[in-house]
Amino acid sequence: MMNMRSKTAWSFKRKLLIVMIVVLLGLGTVIYSLADRYLIEHVEVVVAEDTASAGNSEAAAVTADEVNAAYDDWNYSSDDIQIRIEQVQTGSGSDQITYFVADVVLKDASSLRSAFAENSFGTNITENTSDIASANNAIFAINGDYYGFREDGVIIRDGTVYRDDPVRDAMALFEDGTMQTYNEEEISSSELLAQGVNHTLSFGPILIQDGEIASDFSSVKIDTNFGNRSIQNANPRTAVGMIAPNHYVFVVVDGRNEGYSRGMTLAELADVMSGLGAAEAYNLDGGGSSTMYFMGRVVNNPQGKNRERGVSDILYIREGATS
After folding, report:
1. Strand, coil or helix: what is 314?
2. What Å distances lie between residue 149 and 125, 212, 304, CA to CA?
3. Exposed/middle/buried for 138, CB within 10 Å: 0-12, 13-18, 19+?
4. Are 310 and 262 in contact (CB under 8 A)?
5. What is residue 63's predicted lDDT score, i.e. its pLDDT?
6. pTM score of the predicted model
7. Mean pLDDT, all residues of the chain
8. 242 in helix, strand or coil?
9. Following CA atoms 195, 181, 128, 252 in sequence, which dihedral angle do they give, to the nearest 10 degrees?
10. Rounded to an integer, what distance in angstroms lies between the CA atom of residue 184 and that of residue 67?
């Protein structure tokens, strides 16, 4: 009788052990799958280094001196580049909003460039905006579309197609200094290249198109990745707009810091871009990513804690137009 009970108990324990092993293996597979998708770096292309962009944190100032530029903490002026940055505050108390506007006029559109974190294209490759900017001799920079968090969209940078999976409304910057917002599923990459596209960014939504504010931001959906949060509410924001060819406006909104800045809704951001005279305007990655860099320093207050979050790419301005 005891023997029978002992065998039954052992059989039960063995089954329980097998179940536990199966569960642990299953959890391990899920955890690895999530880590592989959202944490582990996957380099698809190492971008050929532009030797003209190699440098350090002092390179922007050296370049500025070489072209006899005049600059201070908020302004930059040379024969090819004019930048004026302004800090704006509205409201008060819990309703206060703090944001930064950079008005940029270029002689040549090739002064507006893009760079990848670690000089590599892929997923989960990140660096701080200021570090990418510094490594590329940037005078001015903002975070980009964080393409590396997704596996879709149309990603063209410096005239090279890195990803061609059209799914959403996007933005294109052309070699004639114009900017166009468009639907990726309606205009092909080959058409964009034929039109002289330099860069495309895939995030959204479109804020202003053909001089008109987009009519509805209530059902915006950028993607469905794990960990996404709603972007309709007041949040830190980054946006880019075109006033006229080679005349751009960049806006970075701080947020999540009551009494300093609550952030903006998409509708509020669209109103700001319209008020600045943007004929086209597009929302880029925001939240903790929202960062503005100028002449070696971070201008805004990322994450409401003066702490940058790593991003996969930036848009930046540099001396040395290529055409």
Report:
1. strand
2. 9, 30, 22
3. buried
4. no
5. 63
6. 0.85
7. 87
8. strand
9. 140
10. 39
